[in-house]
């Protein structure tokens, strides 16, 4: 009985630590240009379909946050060449890398990087889930770096000013009784 009680206490402390950590990450992100907002799994699933992922693809999630998109891409499309997530948040990158190590995923990587300064030349499939303004700024950085036949998908938010100067396709999709915008750019 005593061992059981100690187990309950330990689990209780772990739950409390995780809750405090989640609050810390959310609060910390509010002071950044693009705050962390957990993405809806149904939106991610639908958006990934538009990337037409194949075994020869190098996938990147720009602004990967907790890694949810990268892990789901790996689960749904397990044979890609590589999966990468970049984010500016140290706690979120540490969390993602810990999960990656616990799952023994060798072709999944997470890096703490500035999305506007990163070299995207090795990636041909790109996922974005961030504000319209930041998406537009990133698109202006990556459009010349990506190889030919690359595809970029922006979920929920459009590509802002980038859309006015470049040809994009906008899809309105009904998910969970609400309309979601998915914007696609193909090089």
Defining traits:
187 residues; alpha/beta; Rossmann fold; 2 domains; 7-stranded mixed beta sheet; 6 helices; 7 strands; 40% helix
Strand order of the largest sheet: 3-2-1-4-5-7-6
Mean pLDDT: 86
Radius of gyration: 18 Å
Strand count, sense and closure of the main sheet?
A: 7 strands, mixed
Q: What series of H and E elements makes up the topology?
A: HHEHEHEEHEHEE
Q: Quick one: CATH class of the largest domain?
A: Alpha Beta
Give the count of helical stretches.
6
Structural class comes to alpha/beta
| Range of helix content | 40-55%
The separation of the N and C termini measures 64 Å
CATH topology group of the largest domain = Rossmann fold
Beta-strand proportion = 15-25%
What would you note in describing this structure?
The protein folds into two domains: 31 residues; 146 residues, Rossmann fold, CATH 3.40.50.150. Helices cover 40% and strands 22% of the residues. The chain contains six helices and seven strands, in the order ααβαβαββαβαββ. The protein has a seven-stranded mixed sheet with strand order 3-2-1-4-5-7-6, covered by helices on one side. Strand 4, helix 5 and strand 5 form a beta-alpha-beta unit. Helix 2 packs across helix 3.
């Amino acid at each position: 009985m005593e061992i059981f009680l100690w187990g309950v206490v330990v689990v209780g402390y772990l739950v409390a630590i995780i809750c405090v950590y989640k609050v810390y990450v959310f609060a910390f992100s509010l002071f950044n240009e693009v705050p962390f907002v957990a993405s809806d799994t149904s939106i991610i699933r639908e958006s990934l379909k538009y990337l037409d992922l194949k075994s020869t693809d190098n996938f990147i999630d720009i602004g990967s946050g907790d890694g949810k998109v990268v892990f789901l891409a790996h689960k749904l499309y397990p044979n890609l060449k590589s999966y990468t997530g970049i984010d500016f948040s140290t706690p979120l990158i540490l969390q993602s890398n810990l999960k990656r190590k616990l799952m023994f995923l060798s072709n999944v990587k997470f890096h703490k990087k500035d999305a506007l300064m990163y070299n995207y030349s090795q990636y041909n499939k790109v996922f974005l889930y961030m504000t319209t303004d930041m998406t537009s700024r990133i698109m202006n950085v990556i459009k010349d770096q990506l190889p030919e036949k690359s595809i970029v998908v922006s979920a929920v938010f459009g590509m802002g000013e980038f859309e006015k100067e470049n040809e994009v396709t906008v899809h309105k999709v009904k998910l969970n009784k609400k309309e979601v915008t998915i914007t696609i750019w193909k090089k």
